[in-house]
Each structure stands twice: as C-alpha cells, then as structure tokens.
Specification:
With 701 residues, the chain is α/β, with parallel strands linked by helices. The chain is built from 24 helices and 22 strands. The structure holds adenosine-5'-diphosphate and magnesium ion.
Length: 701
C-alpha cells in the first residue's frame, strides 16, 4: 500500500497556512501528515471527571468544573486590565481570571447559565484561581464530547504564537483523523500483531490521539512504543548480522612474546577477576574467526586501560598493528604516558598522533605505520583521516567520552580490507536500556569490580558560604602531602562568564594559598597545548599542590597522590560528569574526598544529583539515576529524548517493552537476516523509509 497519505505535505491540511506550516517544520519537524500523527500527546486530561469548587487547590493539574458565573468585575488600569469572575457550584466558588480579551469576554458570559470550566488552578495575589480557562455553555453536544480523555500536546513558544498551543494542535489532529480512514499502511507483520494482541496501526494512531477509554489508550501506546523499539533493534541487529556475514575477522590464533613478556615481567599488579574474565571474552572473539565488535563497560578506575593494552599486545603477537582513539588530546597524551610507562623497556613502538602533531613527526609516523614498524598508535580524531594508512591494522580501541558516530567507526574499519576488531570503551557505565539502544549492535563485556585496596571516596555537598572552612580542609590535606583539584564548569554558551569565574577562583585560591609555601597550577582550554601539558606534568610530578582547571581534566588524568576533588558550581554538571570528575581522586592508598560546591539555592533536580553523589560511589547506580533525570526532554512536557529519536517510548520507563522488542527483533533477524521473506516485507519497507528520513539515526549504532 502506498504511503501517499502520510507523505502529504502538512500545508494541505485545513487550518494550516504557509506560516503555520513553517513553524510546524522548524519547531517540531512536522513536514507531512505522518509527522503530525506522530506528534503524540504527552498526557491526557480526564474530562469524565468534574471537580467541586471546594476541592480546588493550586497543586492540582487541569480540572473541570460545572456551575454558573455569579459576578464579574473589570479591574486594573486601562491597558493592564483584567477580568475577574466568581464561578460557583453547590460547594463553593472559584475565581476565574483573564488578562486578555477582557472587553470581549465581559460581554460574552450570561447570568443564570450553566457552564463547563476547564483550566489549571494557580495562585494570583495570594488567592487560588484559574487563569484563562476554557468556558463552554453546557449543551448535549459538549457533555458527550467531554466524556473522554482529552490529549495534551507539547508545544513551543513559537508554535503558541501562531495559535498552535496544545489546543490548536489538537484541532489540527482532529481535522486530520477522519481523512486517514483506510489510508494507513500496516508496518508490522500480521502474525506479530495477532500474537501480541495489538490494534492495527490505524487504530493505534486514532486511539493515541483521541482514546475512547483508558484500556484502548493502553493498547495503542503499547503497540506504538513496541514498534519504535522494534525498528531500532531491527536496524542494530541487522547491522550486526550483516557484519557477521560479510566480514571474516582476523584470526588472532596465538598469544605470544609481547603479551607474555608484559604479563609476566611488567604488569605491576595482579589483574582483578573481572579484568581476566573480560580479556577472555575478547580473546575468544578475536581467536574465533569472527570480527569482534564489543562494548567494554566499567566504572571509573576499574582498569580498562590495561585491558585494552593487553589486547593490543595480542594483536601485535599475531603480526597486526593496533590503535587507540581517545576523545581529547589530553586524554590521548595521558594514554601514551600510561602505556609507555607500563611497557617499560619492552620493545614496542608506540606513537601519538593528534591534531597538534608537527608535520615532520607526522610524516615519520605515517611512514612507520605504512612500513609496519609502528605497533601501537594512540591518538584523537586525527587517526581517522584518510592519509593515515596502516600496513596491517588488526585491532582498534575507542575510548569514548562523547560517542563517535557510526561513520567515524566505519572509517576505522576501512583502514584494512578486512576490518579490524573493534573494542569500544565507555568512560562511565551506562544503563542497560540505553546501552541496548545506543550500542545494540555490539556485544558487551562488563568490569564490575574495582582493583583491591581502594577506599571509597567520601563525598559531601557544601555551599559557597562555607568556602573558608573548605580552604582550611585543603590546607590540612596539603600539609599531609596530598594534592587537590579544583574544577570549574565551562559550558560553551556561557564561556565568557565561565572563564571569568575560573580566573577569579584562581586568584582567590592564589591569595589563600600564597607562594612560597603553596604552588597552584591552572589549566584550561584557551592555553597553548604545550603550556597546558607542562602545567599538567608539574602537577603529575607533585611540584604543585593545587590544580585549578576547567573540565579539560575530566577524562583520563591519573595522579594517585591527589586526594581531594573540589567541584565548583556542581549544580551545573550532569551526574555522569560529576562521577567522572570524582574518579580523578581515590586512585592512591589514602582516603580521598570529593566536595561538591553549590550556591545556597539549588533546583530539586540538582539537589537529587548532589544527594546521589553523596550516597553512592557506584557508577552503575549513578547512571540509572542520571537517565531517570535526563529522561524528560527539552520541550515542555515532552517525553522525547532527542538523542535516541524516540517519540512515544521512553527508555527510562519502558524497559520491559524494549526487552520484548529486542527479543522479537533477534528472532526475526536470526531467521531472516536480509528480511527477504514475504511476511517481513512490511518491516523492510518501513526500515528503508526510516533510513531515508534518517533523523538521528546516523548517531545510533
Ligand atoms: P579506567 O577504567 O577509568 O580507564 P584506568 O585504566 O585508568 O581506569 O585504571 C585506574 C587505575 O587503576 C590506574 O592507576 C591503573 O594502573 C590501576 N589498576 C588497573 N588495574 C588494576 C589492578 N588489577 N590492580 C591494581 N591497580 C589497577
Ligand atoms: Mg580510562
């Protein structure tokens, strides 16, 4: 069946002129009828329920009342007038208030007439009232219509200006629905619909906008959510299946001198059981004739680097080169130092390539990569440039803070005719549901154990007004020979102010910790890389006591002697970032501390973030709370978590449906990897359609 109805430009809908069409497109990406149908309500108001005036308080959501208007008054100066009406039922009265259309409204309402009033109670001048309610005379018609769940749509300011608030959007959908009868193609195989007792797509779309009752709404939502997850999982699992079919994978048959010498003579500590298990999992993949694509999850400080190194050495043992790609220059440099130190005098040629590598060095590196004398290359995005050619690349590690897109990953694959094995390491754990959605094409390994002897970091939440006490604490720690980090946020949008705060903070600390007794370092993104690196090294060598920095130190740096992490304006950081920062301390044998500094007043969300940080050091738990908090999107009231492209399903709440969709998708792809069987034709068609529309998809997988 053709999709022409769904692909009809939204301008063709009655009530949508050129101006509205424009905001619909730019504000919420609604270009076609199909997009409008997928602009789902984010909640419903129960219009079967009538509240009593006595029950009304300012905390209630939208309410509906039935009664009469007993008096009206126009108050305020001309130009700022408001209309105030007393609305009464048999239990008491509620004030209604309008700030616009005062004159027109004042002439509209009649005495002794029964009205239905609908709106959100609030507080104004210390009194409970309903501002700008909908008011309709009671008629047979609207008492019938009122007996259903009414959709509430997310809308932006720009939409509202064009009359497309929730109610305006509702009108559009209401106009559209009767036209779609018989024109909505099915997207799921019939057998699946029957098996899961789903309504048809057309029925689901009708019910999700105008449910005839709670049960119908639940069924519609269940189907639409399932469907969203299913197509994501089908995409991911198909990528995985096709990789398995198309790519043979280099067979790393043996473990040889590189690995063994390192393991026996250089490894400074015994591996944890979790590290050993993960290396076995990776080894099994790489020695099994298939191309590995694996996600390695582990908390900060769980020892992912050494795992990566051991695997790179296995690649070297089998005559292959390896590379490790990091998100920032500082982290790449840190990896280089760590790995060179771990390798000691072993004859392994390790190079560094970043955007700042000098041309002469760069030429040398390119040469060594091509003639095969470079064993391990560490670097940033610079690694994926076309001119970087390996003689025999067999293993790639991606250490990511911000995810590299699938295109970037696939560029790395293409660096050898047969793609290398790929290990993606996350900086902090991510929740299972999110991993399944973002990295669902990868197999997963988890390091769920920290190296022994780590003392849990003590975390406290403190306030700007207690700064002197904090300085005192820093002095005590420094007197014991420890070092301290002080981190400032640096957010692109408020960069100027942030630098100002950073410099002021640096000055205040320099005054409180004067030379020659104390030495204070500063590192931030506007410094030249060489200077930055020098300051970093001074701190690493213990020549300075305090490191004042922006989040450039967020990832990677390893200074076991640093035992205090002070995070300024902590309310501005997300949870996983806070956890990542905290992970910079607690790496030595001493008790470490993390102090979260905020203003005296913080939002409820921020308070929960601080509380979570103080209560737990467990990155997996923190990741769950983080997802719950970030789950709600940017738009007022939307559930759309932009980065996954989900419109109705919610990763934070619909884990069970996601799991079910994953299982079903796996069954389908296992039985029919190319989706060529007739019953899967609808799935293939929909996948191809989504691929073409491909909103955010390139960032997934
Ligand atoms: P992350 O997983 O955050 O990347 P790292 O690889 O940086 O963690 O490791 C953190 C610290 O723990 C490093 O100093 C590393 O040398 C040390 N480490 C790693 N594995 C072990 C182990 N099995 N026993 C003791 N220390 C370890
Ligand atoms: Mg790391």
């Amino acid at each position: 069946m053709s999709n022409s109805f769904l692909d009809t430009p939204v301008e063709f809908l009655k009530g949508v002129g050129p101006e509205r069409a424009k905001v619909l497109k730019t504000e919420i990406g609604v270009h076609h009828f199909g997009d409008l149908l997928r602009w789902y309500p984010f909640r419903y108001v129960d219009r079967t329920r009538f509240y009593k005036a006595r029950e009304i308080n300012a905390d209630l959501p939208y309410v509906q009342l039935r009664g009469t208007i007993v008096s009206m008054q126009t108050l305020g100066k001309p130009g700022q007038q408001r209309l105030v009406a007393e609305f009464r039922d048999d239990t008491g009265s509620v004030e209604l208030i309008w700030f616009q259309g005062v004159k027109w409204l004042a002439g509209k309402f009649k005495p002794n007439t029964e009205y239905i009033v609908f709106g959100k109670p609030g507080l104004f001048n210390g009194r409970i009232n309903i501002a700008h309610p909908e008011v309709e005379e009671v008629t047979d018609e609207n008492t019938k219509r009122a007996s259903a769940l009414q959709p509430v749509y997310p809308a932006t300011e720009k939409l509202k200006v064009k009359g497309l608030d929730s109610k305006g959007l509702m009108k559009l959908v209401k106009t559209l629905l009767p036209q779609m009868k018989g024109k909505i193609p099915e997207t799921l195989p019939e057998s699946l619909i029957n098996k899961l007792h789903f309504p048809s797509r057309e029925e689901a779309l009708t019910q999700v906008h105008f449910p005839s009752g709670p049960a119908q709404l639940r069924n519609a939502e269940a189907r639409l959510k399932f469907e969203e997850f299913l197509f994501i999982q089908l995409r991911l699992l198909r990528v995985r299946a096709q990789r398995r079919i198309n790519f043979k994978g280099h067979n790393f048959e043996k473990v040889g001198d590189f690995f063994n010498t390192f393991y026996e003579k250089h490894l400074p500590f015994p591996l944890t059981e979790a590290q050993k298990r993960v290396i076995k999992e990776i080894r099994r993949d790489m020695g099994g004739g298939k191309q590995m694509n694996r996600l390695l999850q582990g908390d900060v400080g769980s020892g992912k680097t050494v795992v990566a190194l051991l695997c790179m050495l296995i690649a070297n043992d089998n005559g292959f080169q390896a590379c490790l790609m990091a998100p920032t220059e500082i982290l790449a440099t840190q990896h280089l130092h760590t790995i060179r130190e771990l390798l000691g005098d072993m004859w392994v040629n390790v190079g560094l390539l970043t955007g700042n590598t000098k041309a002469s060095e760069r030429r040398e590196i390119h040469e060594q990569l091509r003639n095969g004398t470079m064993h391990i290359l560490i670097g940033t995005h610079a690694l994926i440039e076309d001119e970087v050619q390996f003689a025999k690349l067999g293993f790639v590690v991606i250490d990511e803070q911000h995810r590299f897109g699938v295109e970037q990953r696939s560029k790395l694959w293409r660096k050898n005719t047969n793609p290398p094995h790929v290990l993606v390491m996350t900086a902090t754990p991510i929740p299972r549901t999110l991993a399944m959605t973002l990295y669902g094409d990868l197999d997963t390994s988890i390091i769920d154990e920290l190296p022994p002897g780590r003392k849990p970091i003590k975390t406290v939440h403190s306030f700007d007004s207690h700064r002197l006490r904090i300085f005192g604490f820093m002095k005590e720690q420094i007197a014991e020979g420890r070092q301290v980090y002080v981190v400032y946020p640096l957010i692109k949008e408020s960069e100027k102010m942030d630098y100002k705060n950073l410099m002021e903070g640096f000055e205040a600390i320099s005054r409180a910790f004067p030379l020659p007794e104390y030495k204070v370092s500063i590192v931030h993104g506007q410094m030249k890389p060489a200077v930055k690196e020098m300051e970093m090294q001074r701190f690493v060598r213990g020549e300075t006591n305090i490191m004042v920095a922006t989040t450039v130190i967020e990832v990677g740096v390893n200074v076991p002697n640093a035992s205090v992490m002070i995070i300024e304006s902590a309310e501005r950081f997300g949870l996983s970032q806070l956890h990542q920062l905290r992970g910079r301390v607690g790496r030595g044998a001493d008790q470490s501390f993390c102090i979260l500094m905020t203003g005296d007043k913080v939002s409820a969300d921020a308070r929960l973030r601080m509380k979570t940080m103080c209560e737990t050091n467990d990155g997996f738990k923190i990741a769950e709370v983080d997802l719950q908090l970030r789950g709600s999107g940017d738009l007022e009231g939307t559930q759309q978590s932009g980065f996954t492209g989900l419109r109705i399903a919610d990763i934070t709440k619909d884990g069970t449906i996601l799991q079910q969709a994953r299982v079903v998708a796996a069954e389908i792809v296992d039985a029919d990897p190319h989706l060529q069987q007739p019953q899967n034709a609808v799935l293939l068609e929909q996948l191809n359609k989504e691929l073409k529309e491909s909103v955010n998809w390139s960032r997934i997988s």
